[in-house]
Structure formats: C-alpha cells, structure tokens
Amino acid sequence: MVTPFKNAIAFLVIVVLTTVACAAAAPMPTPNLDAAIEAKVQAAIKAQPTGTLQPTYTPFPTPTSTLPPTSTPLPTPTTSAVFYFDKGMEYIKLENWSLAVEQYTKAIQLDPDYASAYNNRGNAYLGLGQYQNVIADYDKAIQIDPDYAIAYNNRGNVYLGLGQSSLASADKTKACSLDSKYC
User: Fold this and answer.
1) CB 138 within 8 A of CB 122
2) 162-180 exposure pattern, b = at least 16 Cβ within 10 A, e = fewer
3) Where are the domains of the chain?
4) Cα distance from N-terminal residue to C-terminal residue, the chain
5) The dihedral formed by the CA atoms of 57, 62, 68 and 74, expressed in degrees to the nearest 10
6) What is the pLDDT of residues 41-73, one digit of tens each?
7) DSSP state of 2
8) Contact by Cβ (8 Å): 146, 74
9) What is the pLDDT of residues 132-178, one digit of tens each?
10) Domain 79-182 class?
C-alpha cells in the first residue's frame, strides 16, 4: 500500500533527479559582472558630448560685511579692504589677536575711513592688552563716524576697566542715546 508520505518522497526524488539531469545537460552560464559594468561605463563615456564642459552648479553670491546703521552715510569700503576685514574677523574668532591686528591694519591702509576696521582692530588690541592702542582705535572710529554706538560702548567698557569711571559713564550714555541696546 502506498501512503501519502511515500508519494511525497517519490515526488522529491523525481524533482531532484530532473534538476540534476538538466544541470548536467546544459550548464547555465555565470555572468561576468565586471565586464558588464565596464561595458556600461564605456558606453556612458562614449555617449558624453564632446567639447568644453560647463559647470553644473550655481555659485553662491559673494558675501558682504554688514556695517551698523548710522545717521550719516559712510564711504563704501573697497573690496580688498572688506577682504582683510573679514580675515581679521576670522582671527578674532580664533583669538589670534596679533594676526587680527595685521589684517585690520591692511584693511585700514586700503580704506583709511573704514570705521569698523578701526573698531575691530581696537578689539584685537584689547586681546593683546595694548590699552593705549585700543583707546586710539576707538577714538578714530568715532572720529570717522560720530554716531557709531558700538565704538562708544566699547571705549566705555575699556575706560571702566581702567578705572576711569567718568569717561566710561560719558561713553556709555552716548552709546545708549545712539542705540537703545546699549542702555
């Protein structure tokens, strides 16, 4: 008597023998993937247009420094002065005070009326502890732009640190009158 279990075994034996016989009769080729990929790459290269390649990116706009608003228009610094000013800002962030002073000095040489460069060079001199130079640069920034609240505030802070409270108070009051964020 044939049981369902024996039928299942017989079926599996037939499937296995058929698979083995087919594999032996006609072996399946194994694809050479490296050759196929290389062929596709070569076809893509041949399909490229000839001639000068054009960039496919959109360049970012040139960054500009923002100067604080004033009641009197300031002369626009030259591009080179702005370049050195921005480099000075990077050195300030790194607390490399002497290199910051060099960059701001270059900006000032190119644009002697660049009030922000004097103010920031004063900040760099402050990092070096050169207080006479600090005060001189803040003075020059204020001379160029009498409404430059940041310079009054900075000079007032230095005067306060030097124990010159009456000068500090006058500068802090002036900075507050020009910009309420200094009040």
Assistant:
1) yes
2) eeeeebbeebbebbbebbe
3) 79-182
4) 107
5) -150
6) 566 556 555 554 444 444 444 444 445 555 555
7) -
8) no
9) 999 999 999 999 999 999 999 999 999 999 999 999 999 999 999 99
10) mainly alpha
